[in-house]
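Re-running NADH-quinone oxidoreductase subunit K to confirm reproducibility after the cluster update. Everything else is unchanged from the original entry.
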Amino acid sequence: MPVIGLQNFFLLTGVVLFCIGVIGFLIRRNLIICFMCIELMLNGVNLVFITYAHYLKSAIGMMYVLFVMAIAAAEVSIGLAIILMVFRLKASVDMDELNTMRG
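Result of re-run:
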């Protein structure tokens, strides 16, 4: 039975997190769930960046992670504000009901 290394475990975990996020984004129709799936994908990518930065002993991966975290923080604030305004206007966060952008 092959033994999986610690580095391979983190890479596999990052890929699994990313895949769960993609599948959740494609399957679910709720805006908040899709928003959380995007965050899950970003966390999977961050885990892969951190793993490679540790393996290569380079700080470039850490800088990418900080950049992705800053983008994710901005996405959270803007995205939740947009979802809240859509809910106030349409009284629903289902993406199928929001297919038109008319007021």
